[in-house]
Amino acid sequence: YQRRVREAVVSTQSTGTSLRQNFAAVTPPPAVTMGILCCVSDYLKTLGNSFDNVNYMYWSLAFVSAEFLFDTYLIWRQRRVVKETESRTEDVKKLMDEETYLKARSYSLEKINFGIIHDCYSYFETLGVSLLFITPFLWDFAGKSIEYLGYSHELIQSNVFLWQSSLIMAVIHLPWSLYRTFVIEERHGFNKMTLGFYFKDTVKKIVLSNVISSLIMTPLIYLIQWGGDYFFIYAWGLVFAFTMAVFFIYMDFIAPMFDTYTPVPDSPLKTAIEELASSINFPLTKLYIVDGSKRSNHSNAFFYGFFKNKRIVLFDTLLDDTCNPLLGLDENGNKKQFPSGEDDEGKKMKGCNQEEVVAVLGHELGHWYLGHVYKPLLLNQVIILGMFYLFGVLVKNEQMLADFGFPHGSQPTLMSLTIIFQYMFGPLNKLFSILSTQLTRRFEFQADSFAVGLGKGPLLQSSLIKMVADNLSFPLADKVYSSFTYSHPPLLERLAFIGDEIKKQA
Predict the structure, then answer these.
(1) pTM of the prediction?
(2) Is 356 in the active site?
(3) What is the pLDDT of residues 139-166, one digit of tens each?
(4) Beta partners for 23?
(5) N or C: the chain end with fewer CB closer than 10 Å?
């Protein structure tokens, strides 16, 4: 096979033909492919054995430290941009007034400063939990707890550990969440929750997340212990099936536990959205408005569902009073009209008008039309399968858990999953995160181009400008920071891209 590859290269150099064409003739037969895979597996095992003298915890924390320093460097770059740009640039003057710009700058600075402090705390928390062997202590405490109740089983101990760890982390991080919600968000006019509503919401999230964790982790641990050398296939199949099941039931059973989804009544908005969906054969079955305003003034819109059962959800904060069929009624029940974009008190309204909302959905449905929903889903399944396989290689190293404070010979499956996926896969997780960000940004440009093709380009631009202003998003971004952290391209880049697409498609 190596000889045939060399001949293909020589043929390319001598004849000038395509390297791809010549390589197509030397595709390795199945036996060679299996041999290559076996060599990779043996290499990984050898690589694991070569690290017998390395302390896995110290190695993992070294990467955690490097990642923390890198992320801090990125956020400081963005902070410098926000801090030094005290007044609007010429490009920004076309997008928002001075008052809105100053509010967005203040909001961004406060979030960045809070984020830096919180990231520092999280970093030292990770170091403390690792170096003080808190995880082995909690695992041992969970075991003693069930022994006190007369039980002794790894699956029961694993579930007790999940619940107690979740509750401890919720309590530890509660002050940070409270400050973010009731100080930062409220100071800038976004928070709409009361303390009672907040705690009720938090308790429901904790209980629900732990129930879901137990439902997936219990059979997963069993399959890993039972599945033998091919457990990674069974584990991947379970995770895939569980993920699909959650997707199917989430909007019908889980989401209504937190928000109210109201079907959009017959109205010009509903007609316009149905016409848009029909024009691209989008199988729209239901259209909802969710009361996002009871939590925050931030706006959003999305679609969900599989096959021929697609639904669209609009946040009520996305709609201005001229198009929201659930709001803007006068004392006689008739629809108010604000053609000037101002309410009856002369204040500038927030939200998008009907044409702009349809343009936003043109972008969102572009993701569906271009396959942006299924491509990442398939890619993630390949990654999950590969990571389970690598887990099977690494879990055989008994020294790994010992380095994290567990007794020699003790290898509880849940702890192996936690240590390997959270710590040992840290570099892979970071790499996949960066690649995912780049892929998502590419998809966003493609969806913008799709919306322009529907004739929604100028309306999409105006809707983006309104949403940035309504959400007090800072319109300027450091290029390095945004390329690593922004899943959506910065506003000025998107507006310029849409403008170029309008010219191309004219």
Answers:
(1) 0.82
(2) no
(3) 999 999 999 888 888 999 999 999 999 9
(4) none
(5) C
Q: What share of the chain is helix, strand, coil (3-state, %, to 5)?
A: 70, 5, 25
Tell me the C-alpha distance between 242 and 466, whole Å.
Answer: 38
What three-state secondary structure class fits 87? coil
Strands 301-304 and 310-315, sheet pairing: antiparallel
Q: Is 29 exposed, middle or buried (0-12, 13-18, 19+ CB in 10 A)?
A: exposed
Asked if 78 contacts 481 with a C-beta cutoff of 8 angstroms, the reply is yes
Rounded CA gap, 52 and 59, in Å? 12
Residues comprising the chain, all counted: 506
The Cα 322–Cα 368 span in angstroms is 28
What are the helix (H) ranges across 180-230?
186-187, 195-226
Q: Which has the closest alpha carbon to 139: 420, 412, 425? A: 412
Taking the C-alpha atoms of residue 245 and residue 219, their distance in angstroms, rounded to an integer, is 15
CB neighbour list of residue 78: distance below 8 Å, 6 or more residues apart: 112, 477, 478, 481, 482
User: How many other CB atoms sit within 10 Å of the CB of residue 66?
Assistant: 13
* H or E element, residue 310: strand 310-315
Distance between CA atoms of residues 19 and 386, nearest Å? 29
Which one is catalytic: 185, 356, 364, 444?
364
DSSP for 218-282, written as a single string: HHHHHHHHHSGGGHHHHHHHHHHHHHHHHHHHIIIIIGGGTS-EEEPPSSHHHHHHHHHHHHTT-
Is 486 within 8 Å of 441 (Cβ atoms)? yes
How far apart CA 127 and CA 63 sit, in angstroms, is 12
DSSP H or E segment with residue 316: none
- What DSSP designation does 420 have? I
Question: What would the two tokens of residue 5 be?
Answer: 């590859």
Q: Give the span between the Cα atoms of 206 and 172, in whole angstroms.
A: 13
Q: Which amino acid is at 211?
A: V
Residue 229 CB partners (closer than 8 Å, separation 6+): 392
pLDDT per residue as tens digits for the range 329-380 = 444 445 544 443 444 444 456 788 889 999 999 999 999 999 888 888 889 9
| Cα 194 from Cα 78, distance rounded (Å) | 32
- Which residues fall within 8 angstroms of residue 205, CB to CB, at 6 or more apart? 258
20 in Cβ contact with 383 (< 8 Å): no
Phi-psi region of 85 (alpha: psi -120 to 50; beta: other; left: phi over 0): beta
Whose CA is closest to 444, among 375, 385, 497? 497
